[in-house]
Design brief:
alpha+beta, two-stranded antiparallel sheet, 1 helix
């Protein structure tokens, strides 16, 4: 799906533009018949499949541990 927006950078730009336009944004994780926590690489991600999430703000932050 991200390729549709021109990759990760294009998707990020899309989110920043929608935020600037004060759009309501949300997302979810398709469980494809599964329910419960989303496990990535054997670890609980803290996200729940088939649950709706809202995006309250989009912003760039500087990472002092990863300049660049």
């Amino acid at each position: 799906m991200i390729d549709h927006y021109g990759g990760a950078d294009g998707f990020w730009d899309y989110l920043l533009k929608r935020d600037a336009e004060l759009c309501l944004m949300g997302c979810s994780i398709k469980g494809n018949g599964k329910n419960g926590p989303l496990v990535l690489n054997g670890k609980n991600s803290g996200l729940i499949m088939n649950h709706a999430y809202s995006l309250n703000d989009i912003m760039d932050l500087d990472d002092p541990f990863n300049p660049g």
